[in-house]
Amino acid sequence: MNPRASPAQAAASALTVERAFELLWQQAPDFAFVVLDRAGTVLGWRAASESMFGYSEAEIVGGTADILFTEEDRALGLPQLEREVALSAQRSEDDRWHVRKDGTRIWVFGSLIALREGDRHVGFAKIMSDRTNLRAQLETLENRLDSAHDALRGRDAFFGRLTHEIRNALGPIGNVTDLVERRGLLTSELQMPISIVKRQVAQMTRMLEDLAEVVRFGAGKLRLVKQRFDLGADLVEIAAAVQQDAERKSQTIDVLVPPAPVPVVADKARVHQIVFNLLHNAIKYTPPGGRIWLQCTVEADEAVIKVEDTGAGIAPALLPKIFELFTQEDPHQSGGGFGVGLSLVKDLVDAHRGFVEVRSDGKHQGSEFTVRLPLRPVD
Question: Helix/strand/coil (H, E, C) string of 163-178?
Answer without folding.
Answer: HHHHHHHHHHHHHHHH
